Amino acid sequence: MGTRWLTVAVIFLSTLVATEVVAQGAATQDAGPTAEAQVGTAVVDRALQGAAESFPASVGTVYGYSKIAKTQAGATIEHVWYHNDVEVGRKQLNIGGSPWRTWSSKVIPADATGDWKVEVVADGKVLTSVAFKVQ
After folding, report:
1. Rg of the chain's alpha carbons, rounded to an integer?
2. Pairing with 66, which of 15, 102, 112, 132 sits 20 to 30 Å away (CA)?
3. Integer Cα distance of 122 and 68 in angstroms
4. From CA 37, how far away is CA 78, in angstroms rounded?
5. What are the tens digits of pLDDT across the range 75-110?
6. Among candidates 35, 83, 36, 77, which has minimal Cα distance to 55?
7. Burial of 67 (0-12, 13-18, 19+ CB in 10 A)
């Protein structure tokens, strides 16, 4: 009789542990995509060049560069560009796998000095944001 109770207890505890592991795995998958972002002055061979937090008014073009993970091919993200908290551009970008590097660019007029930022957005949720100045 004692052996039967021990067997039942082991099975019960094993089931609890297995349920917890499955639940943790599901929570990790539901966390959605993650992103890292930077801005710079060019993209060469799929690598950002001239990364900085501040650019001269004569910069011409700034590139928003993102590395997306925990996603899958066929997904999309957006780069949303802001100048002084006013949206001035939005670019939808296709994701080809995970991790995936992608970028967009924004022409910066010489008189568009001030605070800028690029948000990386997936399914309406801001994954990350990178702020920079043009002076």
Report:
1. 23
2. 112
3. 10
4. 12
5. 999 999 999 999 999 999 999 999 999 999 999 999
6. 83
7. middle
What is this structure's pTM?
Answer: 0.77
Per residue in 47-65, pLDDT (tens digit) is: 999 999 999 999 999 999 9
Q: What integer pLDDT is reported at residue 27 of this predicted model?
A: 45
What token pair was written down for 63? 């590139």
Q: What is the DSSP string of 3-54?
A: HHHHHHHHHHHHHHHHHHHHHHHHHHHHT--EEEEEEESEEETTEEES--SE
DSSP string across 46-95: TEEES--SEE-TT-EEEEEEEEEES--TT-EEEEEEEETTEEEEEEEEE-
State both tokens at 98.
Answer: 């995970």
Rounded Cα distance, 33 and 29, in Å: 9
CA 56 to CA 113: how far, in whole Å? Answer: 8
CA distance 93 to 74: 10
Beta bridge partners of 122: 125
